[in-house]
Amino acid sequence: MDGVTLRGLQAYIKEKDYRPELKQGYFLKLIEEVGELAEVIRKDRRLTEGGDIKGTIEEELYDVLYYVAALANVYEIDLERCAQLKETLNDRKYGRVPTEPLT
What value, to the nearest 5°, has the Cα angle with vertex 69 and ends 65 and 73? Predict the structure, then answer.
């Protein structure tokens, strides 16, 4: 998965785990993973060089991202496009100078 894009990650997750009938389950897993992320952040558990990812902020961030992407797939939402639209909205809302578009 070197050089993976958000769109590529969504496609990868959809290929291995796409069960629209479980959308509520995906949402509940997302909430669970956010709780686990909160715990490892509180304990400041980080991945170390050559270390195991288990029980780290890095692991839990990926788990949260996984279930966000799984939910986006169920609802047929392109997260890359959402990011572009939302950043444009944020630029206007906060008076920021637009930067290069996300690619």
Answer: 170
CB 1 within 8 A of CB 12: yes
- Decide if 18 is inside a domain: yes
Output the CA–CA distances (angstroms, integers) from residue 67 to 42, 49, 50, 57, in the order listed: 21, 26, 26, 16
For residue range 69-102, list pLDDT tens digits in order: 999 999 999 999 999 999 999 988 898 876 666 5
Q: What is the pLDDT of residues 9-66, one digit of tens each?
A: 999 999 999 999 999 999 999 999 999 999 999 999 999 988 899 999 999 999 999 9
Q: Provide the residue range defining the domain that includes 18.
A: 6-94
Instruction: Answer left, alpha or beta for residue 13, where phi above 0 means left and psi between -120 and 50 means alpha.
Output: alpha
The Cα–Cα gap between 17 and 1 comes to: 16
